[in-house]
Amino acid sequence: MASSTPEASNLPGMGASVNPDGGITFRVWAPTCDQVYVAGNFTNPQWNEGKIALAREEKNSEYWSIFVKEAKVGDHYKFVISRKDQPDLWKLDPYCRQVTGRINLNDNSPRENECVIINPKLFQWDKKKFDMPLWNELIIYEMHLGTFIDNGDIARRFLDAISKLDYLVELGINASEI
């Protein structure tokens, strides 16, 4: 059952933010909805029937948030957007760092694809030092992942674009905007 009196989280961050003391803060910008929920494998019961209501952060705010003590790194989730007189919309978190399954933005099913809670501080970088070019030496390529590969392949993940990055380097590109 959805929570009836949610309280907004005072922890920072958009999307699913890991609290160092445990639990996750969920925050989303949803200006035109009447209510936002989060559902996942940490809700009881799992997913739709156990969805948790987020709270508006302030009266008339466009931001919604909630702290969920039971959620943890590795859990899967989606936001559920409710509007008056319309069916609920199951949405991926625009701030999520990992998604399961194939991304289909037109799909409204709860389990077609899911966001995965990631702790970015645990990521093991393979380079110890990165030297950013000076701002006046940047040559930026604005990449749209869905149109970056033009040979009939469909890029669905950032990993799909890696094989084409050497071409950008040959052109003199030294920064990419995604």
TrEMBL record:
SUPFAM superfamilies: (Trans)glycosidases (SSF51445), E set domains (SSF81296)
MF GO annotations: hydrolase activity, hydrolyzing O-glycosyl compounds
GO biological process per UniProt: carbohydrate metabolic process
Highest taxon above the source species: Eukaryota
InterPro entries referenced in this protein's UniProt entry, alphabetically: GH (IPR017853), GlgB_N_E_set_prok (IPR044143), Glyco_hydro_13_N (IPR004193), Ig-like_fold (IPR013783), Ig_E-set (IPR014756)
Pfam families listed in its UniProt record: CBM_48
Domain Glycoside hydrolase family 13 N-terminal: 14-95
Family: Belongs to the glycosyl hydrolase 13 family.
Protein's recorded name: Glycoside hydrolase family 13 N-terminal domain-containing protein
Organism: Adineta steineri
